[in-house]
């Protein structure tokens, strides 16, 4: 593990302002010149395992998503959910250590106007949604963190279920009443994992929405908050049959 220096806020703002000027760097060069100016960085309590981050890679044919989630989670030490809201961590990683992954996973459009908007979305993190869903690296950390909360499955198994269908994943992760309720989260992901290993019907948009609607009818948000994982698993299993 080595210390991870974060970009200063001013450095992030300058990078964001200069996206258009740096398009060639985003496409096929690098930002190593930034490392030559210590004034652009600030020390943090975070550490990175550079060897583990080498496992964050993909190709145009295989996003390698689950493995990348685990590698980012393992490769960063000292990052808490609170600190993970700090854009400076993720801008550092998308521009320095994991630039190649970021532009391979999220290929930069050939049109400059489209390229700028694309870079703003995947190489920066301007909002909570941007951090949890859009930034090329922070989204991996957040998915691994959510998957790690699931009781009854290995993190890798929970990731397989969460990553299988984007609409289902968004419905779970972006809904606080679900993602922040460990028992409900676990019951849902366990049921999704069972479906993944069988007919995969629960991943159909209409079917999953029906499940969530039935859960609300059966228990309501307040009741679901106080039920244990075993009871919720039974409830989810019954709702999945409807």
Can you tell me about this structure?
The structure is a single chain. The chain is mostly helical and 242 residues long. It folds into two domains: 2-141, no CATH class; 151-241, no CATH class. The chain is 60% helix and 4% strand. Helix 4 packs across helix 9 (138-148), helix 10 packs across helix 13 (182-196) and helix 14 packs across helix 16 (229-241). The longest helix is centred in the C-terminal third of the chain and has 15 residues, at 182-196.
Q: Work out the strand percent.
A: under 5%
Structural class by secondary-structure content: mainly alpha
Q: What percentage of residues falls in helices of 4 or more residues? A: 55-70%
Terminal CA distance: 50 Å
Radius of gyration: 20 Å
Low-confidence stretches: none
Task: Provide mean pLDDT, rounded.
Answer: 90
Strand order of the largest sheet: 1-4-5
Number of strands: 5
**Could you give a short account of the major beta sheet?**
3 strands, antiparallel
Number of domain modules: 2
